[in-house]
């Protein structure tokens, strides 16, 4: 498909290389307006007759830190516990008032495989509250939230805590399969002779460890390679990618300095300092970014360390409830969680196009258009991935050829897009990002006076997610 895309897109009108520069500048110039409170627009509500309204009451996250830094000596459940405790503190929620707890994660620590349960017990929640852990790559906490939505709308629960955690500072490293088989056989051996025979069979090659890789099992290709090929297929230049990465870091720094990242809680790391903010936000310059060499496809690739999201440690948590329950408990919700979809496509050539497939589907379910959306928050796995999705959304040819649509849905207006930074700058703990996206949309809707927000994200396996969020009346 990549070659078809390249050939077909060459026939489309050429893209101005300065396109990203123009919209980045426009978006940056509008960021100063984020401090002004705007009156919420008057639009129809997306409430459905006979369906419970599900509301986001609060969302928090630990600071997202580069892996191998301040969190390095912790375990995943430590971060998840900190997020849960932060949620309890911020909401004054009684610890026995929750019906169910769901957490998302990707690379599991074998000692705490059900990290939701271990973290909830550590945070002091009642041991009577069921907890389970889900995984769907980078949209794992999206699944946690939507599972909670389903439990509420079905009448099973009224109060759900959902979240996600990822800890890249310490990932499981296994012995080789041959060594594992030998060790298991040793454990079953009954005589000294059997043990000595097994020990004598061990060779140096058996001692080579199996290291985890951010790669597709079905294709054996790393996500960075996929991002590079996708960028090439859509004609996304190195300049465009670096400009978008610079935009993300610059906007994130502005939001951090302005105190807009209010979902971040302070966390006293045992034996270390208090951590109060993300440490991966690093505005640079185009000159510095241009010096970096390709990280995956060498020497001609366009994806670099600077225009890719970095390995991150962090956890998030949200409190979602039926609207009736939230109001009965005295809470003022932040937003309604409305329609959502999950999508899946070819993991070889369309691995990172989840937003392109999910966005038109969720808009159709909600009866909205792109123009109706006031706030967009897309997961930034790579700058090239974001740019490819924007071009795909704005391509009639792609819509007709691959999506069975008569016309394109259109690209988001950049003055509405990821205005407080994104995964490229804030960080991307795989299992935790979904909750950050949803909470950011709710906060931006409040700050900017919008009514509808849209979250979209890609995930490994060629999967994706999109959700419409509606501001709660102020």
UniProtKB/TrEMBL annotation:
Annotated localization: Endoplasmic reticulum; Mitochondrion inner membrane; Mitochondrion outer membrane
Keywords: Acetylation, Acyltransferase, Endoplasmic reticulum, Fatty acid metabolism, Lipid metabolism, Membrane, Mitochondrion, Mitochondrion inner membrane, Mitochondrion outer membrane, Transferase, Transit peptide
Start and end residues of each Thiolase C-terminal domain: 331-470
Residues of the Thiolase N-terminal domain: 54-324
Keyword Magnesium set for record: no
Catalyzed reaction equations: hexanoyl-CoA + acetyl-CoA = 3-oxooctanoyl-CoA + CoA; an acyl-CoA + acetyl-CoA = a 3-oxoacyl-CoA + CoA; decanoyl-CoA + acetyl-CoA = 3-oxododecanoyl-CoA + CoA; dodecanoyl-CoA + acetyl-CoA = 3-oxotetradecanoyl-CoA + CoA
Gene Ontology molecular-function annotations: acetyl-CoA C-acyltransferase activity; acetyl-CoA C-myristoyltransferase activity
Enzyme Commission code: 2.3.1.155, 2.3.1.16
A Pfam family that the UniProt record links to this protein: Thiolase_N
NCBIfam families linked: AcCoA-C-Actrans
Function: Mitochondrial trifunctional enzyme catalyzes the last three of the four reactions of the mitochondrial beta-oxidation pathway. The mitochondrial beta-oxidation pathway is the major energy-producing process in tissues and is performed through four consecutive reactions breaking down fatty acids into acetyl-CoA. Among the enzymes involved in this pathway, the trifunctional enzyme exhibits specificity for long-chain fatty acids.
Family, as annotated: Belongs to the thiolase-like superfamily. Thiolase family.
UniProt protein name: Trifunctional enzyme subunit beta, mitochondrial
Organism, scientific name: Salmo trutta
